[in-house]
Design brief:
The complex is a heterodimer. Chain A is mainly α. In chain A, 75% of the residues lie in helices and 0% in strands. Chain A has one domain: Orthogonal Bundle (MetI-like fold), CATH 1.10.3720. Chain B has two domains: 179 residues, P-loop containing nucleotide triphosphate hydrolases (Rossmann fold), CATH 3.40.50.300; 65 residues, no CATH class. The chains are: A mainly alpha, B alpha/beta.
């Protein structure tokens, strides 16, 4: 029988030699964690892109193809933004909408998180309600505005109801997706380490699902902000405060393109600001801490 | 051929310590999944307390299933087993560290789930990481560590479980040769310092001879203990003795595999 047994493994080297060998390997093989200062390209590049868009807009307007009152240029919009600001209308609208948006989003998180956890852990509930939740996420929340006006009249309740119908399903879905994507090995380790059901949820499932959950929150915020704007545009008057959507609708009623464009830009900037100040840092921290950002374009 | 040296092994066990009790006893253990062919059949084995047993077998011989049964993650279909009441620590082929925790955090998690208080957790985790020579990288996340370092953290974590029995499922299979040699030394040292009972599953004959006091050969489909060798210190230091035993076991392993040709 042709036996080709390679040489056996032998015990070799003193304790001291092994220790230094190991230390050498450790420093060769582990990644050095470097810290960098502020990356200016993150600030300058978006600004440059913004300037390019402004220039293209100004160029198009200066061609004079359309009436100026229908297609105002950047400077015209800046002018009406300025007058909205000095009247205090802009601040009032931003404050009203942001207040509602944050309030509605916070309540949505509080409601959606336990429901999402429950659905992701209990098969019966998941099978029963999963499709309904997915359906609700696809259904445009604006579709609830007429019903909400009939039920609640022109009050804040209408606005909040529409926001909940937009945000809650998407947060629930994000959390469920996050839990579904947990590698089964993590639960096995939890089991081996003797985690109870509650400890498993708190120390294994929730942290492991965190990136998916934050993704769901981000989408939930987008849905609630959109729903809020839609609700404010459609439902005006009554005891409702004056929000950004209301400002937009007022601009339309006055046929004042300056106000319309100003409102659109403010809504856009609030969206960008929340992304840059709240979600981007949280997501980045989360992903970098798990070694998931290497090689990404982020 | 040094086969089925049960008598010799027992006398060795007696020489090491007369008061030794068996840590794990497997009696006519069998396992089948659903209506399929049995994965394990009629397994009989005894592991003494503080013993280091290498469980050797080709891929697909049910080694992992056997470990799962011993650890309580799975139940046998037939037969009986006796294991420590407080369960076993487990080390997997991949380190299975939680990526959102640092090396220290991962070790502390094992302590936390055992109910160790916060201050003691910190101290104990540092001690255990020092034991595997990782005192310098305690605050690194798993992705910042090399494969070998991750396995050492996993070893520290399984020691943190503080169970007398440690089950290891091919923990060094995915490592490079230099790192593996190092970890063999390290594991041997940790075993001597902590007095754990270790069942080490591998498909690598040389690794089994390098580490085990006893090597059990498991046949494939169905898995059954078909041969057993005692390994002395001479087999670990003398190239001649080590080579002879290694080729002996390899021949027997190949013979088992050929049966399925």
């Amino acid at each position: 029988m042709p036996e080709t047994v390679t040489s056996p493994m032998l015990k070799s080297g003193t304790e001291e030699e092994m220790r230094s060998l190991e230390a050498g390997l450790d420093s060769l093989q582990s990644a050095s964690s470097e810290r960098r200062g502020i990356d200016w390209s993150r600030v300058l590049l978006p600004l440059a892109a913004f300037v390019v868009v402004l220039l293209a807009w100004q160029f198009y307007v200066s061609l004079g193809l359309r009436r100026r009152d229908l297609v105002p240029g950047p400077l015209d919009v800046l002018g009406s933004l300025g007058s909205l600001w000095s009247e205090g209308t802009a601040q009032e609208a931003v404050w009203t909408s942001l207040q509602r948006g944050i309030m509605g989003f916070a309540i949505s998180i509080v409601v959606a998180t336990p429901i999402g956890l429950l659905l992701s852990q209990v098969r019966l509930l998941r099978r029963a309600f999963g499709p309904l939740i997915s359906g609700l996420q696809v259904l445009p929340s604006v579709a609830w505005v007429p019903a909400a006006i009939i039920w609640f009249g022109l009050t804040d309740a209408t606005v909040y109801f529409v926001m909940f119908m937009g945000a809650i399903p998407s947060i629930i879905n994000g959390l469920i997706a996050g839990v579904d994507q947990i590698p089964p090995q993590y639960r096995r380790v939890g089991q081996i380490l003797g985690a109870s059901r509650w400890e498993m949820a708190a120390h294994v499932v929730l942290p492991a699902a965190l990136p998916g959950y934050v993704g769901g929150l981000k989408q939930g915020w987008a849905f609630s902000w959109r729903s809020l704007m839609a609700a404010e545009i459609i439902a005006m008057g009554g005891s409702l405060g004056f929000g950004l959507g209301s400002l937009l609708e007022q601009g339309r009623q006055l046929s004042d393109m300056g106000i319309v464009m100003s409102a659109i830009l403010i809504i856009l900037f609030v969206g960008i600001l929340v992304e840059l100040v709240v979600f981007a840092p949280v997501e980045k921290r989360l992903l970098r801490g798990r070694g998931l950002l290497a090689g990404s374009t982020r | 051929m040094t086969e089925l040296l049960t008598a010799e092994t027992e006398s060795r066990g007696g020489a090491d310590g007369a008061s030794r009790a068996p840590a794990v006893v497997l009696e006519n253990l069998g396992k089948r999944f659903g209506d399929g062919a049995p994965v394990l059949e009629d397994i009989n084995a005894t592991v003494q307390q503080g013993e280091f047993v290498a469980l050797l077998g080709a891929s697909g011989c049910g080694k992992s299933t056997l470990l799962n049964i011993i650890s309580g993650l799975d139940v046998p279909s037939t037969g009986a087993l006796e294991v420590p009441a407080d369960g076993a620590a487990f080390m997997f082929q991949d380190s299975s560290l939680f990526p959102w925790l640092s090396a220290r955090g991962n070790v502390e998690m094992a302590l936390k789930l055992r109910g160790v208080g916060k201050a003691e957790r910190r101290v104990r985790a540092a001690e255990l990481l020092d034991l595997v020579n990782l005192g310098h990288s305690m605050d690194k996340r798993p992705h910042e560590l090399s494969g070998g370092m991750r396995q050492r953290v996993a070893l520290a974590r399984s020691l943190a479980q503080d169970r007398p029995l440690l089950l290891m499922d091919e923990p060094f299979a995915a490592l490079d040769a230099i790192t593996r040699d190092l970890l063999h030394n390290e594991l041997e040292r940790v075993w001597r310092e902590t007095g754990r009972t270790i069942i080490f599953v591998t498909h690598n004959v040389r690794e089994a001879v390098r580490l085990g006091q006893r090597v059990l050969l498991l046949s494939s489909r169905p898995g059954r203990v078909v041969a057993e060798w005692a390994v002395s210190d001479e087999h670990r230091t003398d190239p001649g003795a080590a080579g002879a035993l290694t080729s002996d076991i390899t021949a027997r392993l190949r013979q088992e595999i050929r049966k399925h040709a």
